[in-house]
Amino acid sequence: MGYGSFQNCVRSDGFCIRITILTEKPETKMSSIPYASYICLLCGHIYHEAEGAPDDGIPPGTRWEDVPPNWTCPECGARKEDFEKMD
Ligand SMILES: [Zn+2]
Q1: Which of 4, 35, 79, 87 could form a disulfide with 50 if both were Cys (CB 3.0 to 4.6 A apart)?
Q2: Could you tell me what percent of the chain has a pLDDT over 90?
Q3: Inside any domain, residue 7
Q4: Does 28 reside within a domain?
């Protein structure tokens, strides 16, 4: 009595080991949204959010909405509006 549910004597010599049961916290990870890919409707070039466009100074992991609006397709020069999200 009085020890609480988190403490138990598990050894015969009376040495007590405190056992704490950790409950898993459901982590709210903002970054858990899977990366998407966008395809250029004009030439078929694919922009992968996970890869970015390092040649254009866009680091890997850049979300499509974070790609500068003046960014154009490296293959054909199409604008962002000419890209479509891939499923
Ligand atoms: Zn293109």
Answers
A1: 35
A2: 61
A3: no
A4: no
